[in-house]
Amino acid sequence: MDPSFLVIQGISGLTMAMILFLVASGLTLLFGVVNVFNFAHGSFYMLGAYFAYTFVSILGFNFWVSLLLAGVAAGAFGMLMEMLFLRRIYGRAEEAGFQILLTYSFILIIDDLVKMVWGTEYKSLQRPDGFSGSVELLGMVLPSYNLAIIVLGLLVAVGSWLVLSRTRGGRIARATAIDREMLSTLGVNVPLTLSLTFGIATALGGVAGALAAPLRSVTPGAGIEVIIDSLIVVVLGGMGNFWGALLGSLIIGEVTAFAVAFVPDWASLFSFLVMIVVLIFKPEGLFSPAKVRRA
After folding, report:
1. pTM to 2 decimal places
2. Beta bridge partners of 123
3. How far apart are CA 66 and CA 75, in angstroms?
4. Is 207 or 96 the better-scoring residue by pLDDT?
5. So what's the pLDDT on residue 28?
6. Is the dihedral of CA 65, 68, 70, 72 positive or negative?
7. In the structure, what pLDDT confidence band is assigned to residue 93 with cuts at 50, 70 and 90?
């Protein structure tokens, strides 16, 4: 088998993995800190793609500036959703059921809003200047934009871990998941912490959508496609586990990339097969919460 083919497919899998990780890490953050399983999280991925399209193709902004603005816009929308709707159901006995119904309804609402604002036709976004071509590495020609996504995804992974584990804000966020009443007694503004966490998580989804826009068509319904793979990633890694989300993303990204190359008609099944195998032998996920607590 041609080694260059394997490397190219591996790069494609890593690219998909980094985009998935950005979405899944936000989903993991919400579940681990806010204790919300946000079914609408994929819709913020879609919003990020549309915001990036608007900033770049309509307003003429630089792609990397638009990437940040798309993340900020998606995060602001997420904070609004948390403050106006989700905050009203915290602490209720039926909270889990309300979360599912409310966040699922936002999938439909955001999809319709996107159709009203941007229409139903497919949009496309050009790759940023300087990253539209390829680079030669060890005799192989690799797409430069894919390499940029991989590097950026790894930087976000390391940066997010440092913020969560090494800063006061990160420690407060993690403590919020354990005892909100105690934090409130100590003078911490818990509602603001939850809103900011929700905003950061949805901003990560928006950045992922903006990064993926030059590789895929920007279209309504894109959020549903990505949320399914993200849920598989979160289940694989372990609910609420950051590094588990990264490992799960790498597994699904590579499995999907090579399945598309070798068995394209059955490629979509392999992600589910991996999840089934993990759930049979390690139902708590590859990184169980118990390991996180001991660390």
Report:
1. 0.90
2. 218
3. 14
4. 207
5. 87
6. negative
7. low
